[in-house]
Design brief:
Layout lengths: L6 E6 L24 H21 L3 E6 L16 E3 L4 E4 L13 H9 L6 E4 L12 H4 E4 L4 E6 L5 H11 L2 E6 L1 E4 L2 E4 L7 E3 L3 E4 L7 H13 L3 E4 L2 H4 L7 E4 L5 E6 H6 L2 H10 L1 E5 L2 H7 L8 E2 L6
Parallel strand pairs: 1-2, 4-5, 7-8, 12-13, 15-16
Antiparallel strand pairs: 1-17, 3-4, 6-7, 9-10, 11-12, 14-15
InterPro entries: Amdntrnsf_FN0238
Organism: Flavobacterium rhizophilum
Protein name: Arginine deiminase-related protein
Length: about 300
């Protein structure tokens, strides 16, 4: 199985703003009081378009779908939370914590991929768990090592253990379960998504091990990565505040790979960390300041990887 893909689904925002429903447990979101909603959305669109251009320039196949004004979906720019696409033709649909995020799931997006020649064999739908207030937010909550059939999950209000185990059974992944925390007003609070604090690439992994407060769990996670031959590159919690953990490796022209991140993430990496990453892959970064501040998510969250095969 491939760990990285050259095809990415991205949703262009039409009414992007800070989502009040997600702010309750996403401590990375910030209120931008001095900006009108239209200004915030226009800035987000500019950042989105520049990011897509950078990906396309290096040969990544970006499928862009415009969001719709109705229903109101301020976080639609983060599609990886509601859908994941798998090499065997499976598509998974996930239960979302925020009620207004559930409206992001649009059947016509799957139809569009089929029109573009991608084969969808089967839809695995976990969304009924929302009725029981059980959530698992896609590849935000789950970081997949597709090659080694492992799925990493930091439990949180948006990642429920039993449903995660069910996902692992359905998709034949070995679960690696732990808890990850960040300091908010001197308190340790659960990190809302696993992909904020770790990224698994083909030959390396970037992770903030300091977020895993339980020493046994921390060792277990690091041992899993190392046993699969990944070079582990450690981040600090301070770097996570600039979305340094929110990265994704993709493939471009001539089989070349890139580790994609925001400009703010790139800027807080040390020379040593950059050198370690660049032994494995090239870095591609783009400014996402407005999206990060209002959305509380970054480059990784904006990209839903498409592993479906072309018919």
């Amino acid at each position: 199985m491939r760990q990285i893909t050259d095809t990415i689904l991205m949703i262009r925002p039409v009414a992007f703003r800070m989502n009040e429903q997600t702010a309750v447990n996403n401590y990375y979101q910030k209120v931008m009081d001095n900006l009108l909603p239209d200004t915030v959305n226009a800035k987000a669109q500019q950042e989105f378009d520049a990011f897509v251009d950078k990906l396309r320039t290096v040969g990544v196949n970006v499928v862009v779908v415009d969001d719709t004004v109705n229903p109101d979906t301020p976080d639609s720019i983060f599609p990886n939370n509601w859908v994941s696409f798998h090499e065997n033709g499976d598509v998974a649909l996930y239960p979302m914590f925020a009620e207004n995020r559930r409206l992001e799931r649009r059947e016509e997006i799957l139809d569009l991929l089929e029109e573009k020649g991608f084969a969808i064999e089967n839809i695995v739908d976990y969304t009924s768990a929302e009725e029981d207030n059980i959530f698992l937010e896609g590849t935000g909550s789950i970081v997949l090592d597709r090659q080694n059939h492992k799925a990493y999950c930091a439990l949180s209000p948006r990642a429920e253990e039993e449903l995660f185990i069910e996902f692992c059974e359905d998709f034949e992944y070995n679960p690696v379960i732990f808890e990850a925390f960040q300091t908010v007003n001197s308190e340790r609070k659960h990190i809302y998504h696993t992909n904020v604090m770790m990224c698994v690439a083909e030959t390396f992994a970037v992770i903030c091990a300091d977020c895993i407060d339980d020493k046994k769990e921390r060792k277990m996670v690091l041992d899993n990565l190392k046993s699969d031959g990944k070079e582990v590159i450690l981040l600090t919690e301070q770097q996570l505040n600039h979305f340094a953990g929110n990265m994704l490796q993709v493939r471009g022209n001539n089989n070349k790979s890139y580790l994609v991140m925001s400009a703010s993430a790139h800027q807080v990496l040390t020379n040593d960390q950059i050198a370690k990453i660049e032994k494995h892959t090239e870095i591609l970064s783009s400014s996402l300041d407005t999206i990060e501040a209002c959305g509380g998510g970054s480059a990784r969250c904006m990209m839903a990887e498409v592993f479906l095969t072309k018919e």
